[in-house]
């Protein structure tokens, strides 16, 4: 079962960009597992969640949420995917 965060088109695009290099190397069920793991990390890791919130496009007319920090996201899809990969690499270096 796919992680509910994958229903968000922006998140889905970020994750698809991240798994694209593995399309020819992994089985479909392994790709699905990787997608779910990335979505889970985006949900649970505070640093990644912050990056996602900053990069996610905002639709002020459709949203009643208030940006708590006043900061604006500047990463975009490519920057967020790079930041996630860098964070994952840092995690493997610390073990």
Put the structure in a nutshell.
This protein has 95 residues and is mainly alpha-helical. The protein has helices at residues 9-19, 28-44, 46-55, 76-93. The chain is globular, with a radius of gyration of 14 Å.
Can you describe what's shown?
By secondary structure, the chain is mostly helical. The protein is built from four helices and no strands. α1 crosses α2, α1 packs across α4 and α2 packs across α3. The longest helix is centred in the C-terminal third of the chain and has 18 residues.
Protein traits:
95 residues, mainly alpha, 59% helix
Number of strand segments: 0
Q: Span from first to last CA?
A: 29 Å
> Largest sheet, described in full?
none
Helix content: 55-70%
Strand content: under 5%
* Overall pLDDT metric: 76
* Low-pLDDT residue intervals, each spanning 5 or more residues: none
Question: Rounded to an integer, what's the Rg over CA atoms?
Answer: 14 Å
Overall structural class, as computed from helix and strand content, comes to: mainly alpha
Shape: globular
Count of discrete alpha- or pi-helical segments spanning 4 or more residues: 4
Reading the helices and strands in chain order gives HHHH
């Amino acid at each position: 079962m796919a992680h509910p965060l994958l229903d968000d088109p922006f998140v889905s695009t970020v994750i698809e960009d991240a798994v694209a290099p593995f399309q020819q190397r992994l089985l479909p069920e392994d790709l699905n597992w990787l997608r779910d793991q990335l979505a889970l990390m985006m949900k649970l890791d505070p640093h990644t969640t912050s990056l996602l919130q900053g990069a996610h496009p905002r639709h002020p007319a459709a949203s009643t949420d208030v940006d708590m920090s006043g900061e604006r996201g500047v990463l975009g899809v490519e920057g967020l995917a790079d930041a996630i990969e860098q964070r994952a690499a840092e995690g493997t270096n610390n073990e």
